[in-house]
Amino acid sequence: MTGRPNDGDRVYYFGQALFKDKVFDGDVVAMGRALAQRYGGLDGRVLVGHHGGQVSNLSDPAAAAALADLARSARDGRDLVVVLLTSHGLPGEIAVRHPGMKHHTSLTASDLRQLLRPLENDRHVVILQACYSGSLIPALQSPNRIILTAARADRTSFGCAPGSNNTWFIRSLVEELQQGGSWQDVYLRTRSRVQGYERRKGIGIHENSQPQASVGGRMQGLWAGAGGPG
Question: Domain coordinates of the chain in residue numbers?
Fold first, then answer.
């Protein structure tokens, strides 16, 4: 399903590259394009990265304020906000390293809950592209939230080399969003596509990333393709 089945539904996008490598900027831009194609345009977007072009280099507090602004623009229970955070990761955290930083810091589950708090009354999809990102799902589950992660709690994700255009998970998700279908359809096809990349690269079943999903109780209609944008 593509387009906006309910008249008046609006779609907003916030994407942030939390690490300095260009591949993460590429993820942010590619996801914005795919969502705009899927929904026939976006009603608001904020693209945060580090290498110019289509992304803005915002401080972390300014980026969080921009996300809160999008949340205020979205009408509770009617509109959709899609959030992408892309970086490296460790169990229970997403790495943060901007140009000029000597060492990385991190966002913990508690930090992410705080970042996402303005969206609690909005329907929203949170996409976490990072190694071990599935470890963050239990702490972030919420009735109005779909969570998609690049990897299982105990697995790495792939394709995050600095010279890559996109990580494998985001490349797969973008390609499947462009093919249409419900968010559930897109997720299942994305998992299959990622597994194909990994298999061709010789990554076995004991190492593959195994992307994960969590669907809040109020998001079942959107997940299955009914009840709003999607």
Answer: 11-219
Spatial separation of the C-alpha atoms in residues 44 and 41, rounded to whole Å: 9
CA–CA distance, 182 with 22 (Å, rounded to integer)? 30
pTM of the model: 0.95
Record the tokens describing residue 205, joined without a space. 């079943």
Q: How far is CA 182 from the centre of its chain?
A: 16
In degrees and rounded to multiples of 5, residue 40 shows phi and psi of: 70, 35
pLDDT in tens, 37-68: 999 999 999 999 999 889 999 999 999 999 99
User: How is domain 11-219 classified at the CATH fold level?
Assistant: Rossmann fold (3.40.50)
**How far apart are alpha carbons 86 and 160 in whole angstroms?**
10
Q: Token pair of 82, please?
A: 């899609």
Angle subtended at Cα 104 by Cα 62 and Cα 48, rounded to the nearest 5 degrees:
30
Q: Exposure of 229 by Cβ count < 10 A (0-12 exposed, 13-18 middle, 19+ buried)?
A: buried
